[in-house]
Structure formats: C-alpha cells, structure tokens
Amino acid sequence: MDMESIVDELLRKDTLGSDIIAWDYLSGGTSSVVAKIQCKNGQSYVVKRNSPNLIYWESVFLQFYEDSTLLPRLVYAAKEYVVYAFLRGDTLSARPEKRKMLQDLTLGLINDYKPILQGWQEQFSWKKFLQQEVMEAEAIIGSYLSDEDVALIMQVVRSQPREHLYLLHGDCGVHNFLFQEGALCGVIDPLHLFGPPMYDFIFAFCSSPDSLDEETLQYGLSFFDKSFAGELYGSVLIGLYIRLARCLLHHPEDLKRYLEAWEYWKLLYYKQKNSTTPNSSVK
C-alpha cells in the first residue's frame, strides 16, 4: 500500500475526525516510509508504513507505554501502517548535556518499562541475542581492536546472567530522540526487543561519542529504578563494542573517540575485576 492510498483510506474512513488539508513525506528509517499529515482542525499526525511485523510491534510498544511522556500518542494501527500524533522537535536540534538527556530518558520512559506478557517470550534467549550482536559487530570492527579485545568481549557476553525480560525500545539512541530548545522531548521508531531495561539505558549512553565517562553514566543511573542482574562495566563494554561497529558503518568520523572510550572502560572493567590488564593495542 503506497502513501497516497493510505491517505485516501484515512479520509474515506474518517479515521482522524477531520479533513486532511495537506501531507508530505518525512525522512524515514531504513525500511519505513513516513509522512506528516495536517488536518483542517489544526492537528498534525505522522503516518508510518513498514513491514507488518515491525508495524505490529511498534503499535504494541506505543500501546504498552501509552502513559509515557516521551512517546507519541498512537491514533490508529493497520496491518501495514500506524498513525500517531506529531511530536514537535528534531533529531538534529541542539542536544542537552548527556547527563541531563539520560536523566530525562530514564524518568520519562525507561522507568516505565514493564515485564513482557506471557506468550511473548517464545524461544527468545537474551544471551544468544547478545552473542549474535557481538559476532556481527566483530565482522565489521575487524582489526580496529586486538584479538585480546575480541576474547574479552566474548568472555563478558558468556558471563551475562539470566535477566528478567521487559519490552524494550530496542534502538534507543540519539538518532531516534527528538530535541527542542536543548531538551529531550520525544522518542520515536521503537523496534521489537525483549531484554533488561539497562540495555536501552547503555545503548542511549553509547549512542553519541560525547561524555562517555563514568561520572556521566553514574549520574544517569542515579535516576534508574529497575533491577539489574548483570555487571555494569561489562555491560558498558558490550554496548560500546556494538556501537563501534555502527560507528564504522554510519559515522566513521567518530571512530577515534569511540576507540578512546573503549580503552577507558576496559581499564575500569579490569580495575573492578582486580585483574591485570593484558597487553592489547588499538590498531
């Protein structure tokens, strides 16, 4: 179903309760097509078309956390598209300090996370998910990290404990955050992922190369109210490793800062473990 047909269907069914006076395409994700609709009553909406499975889980996420102050209000869900209220803000606008962003994200969304419903888990394994993510990242990172670094991250993943699973955003980074007047005002484009809330928190922390320090992380965590079975510094290493691969694919200009952050957190990890840091080099 193309966007023109979707708009015609919304008009025919009077889904929005007002005539549509204008619409135009917005920049979408990798697979989605997105448009902004303006109605005669002054309201604006976003229409997003994607594969039925992704649309289903996006609508589930928005309904599951309908009281979140950072998520758009779901208006209508069909098989191939969703309609939600337009949120003002922009992913490219000036961002607040990362510590403030993490505070607002935690209080406005992550602390609202709820355990998954019975029947959702199926055969999902959190540890297997992490192993797959790290293996895919390794293929991209290649020689930028040493063999010792690869062995370390594999060991950290293997040591991850069993976690209580929650419905997560799954792509909770600055590329999906809306900002206005230097403040976080919205979170968009959730994916289908079950896991611990800490994953989304660390994903957000690692999603930009600025302020990747322990003080910033601990400040954000001071507002975090969910249980966490894992080991913090090891979880940050996992988040950084995955982010390094995405950096190489999408923002290679940030690589130097992420490699510095990797060495910084690796030292913290070994310090916490009271271990001797093996000789390793960043190529």
Automatic annotation (TrEMBL):
Instruction: Give yes or no: UniProt keyword Heme.
Output: no
Q: Aminoglycoside phosphotransferase domain location, by residue?
A: 27-214
The family database entries (Pfam families) matched by this protein are listed as: APH
Q: Which UniProt keywords apply?
A: Transferase
| Superkingdom | Bacteria
Q: Which GO terms describe its molecular function?
A: transferase activity
Q: What is this protein called?
A: Phosphotransferase family enzyme
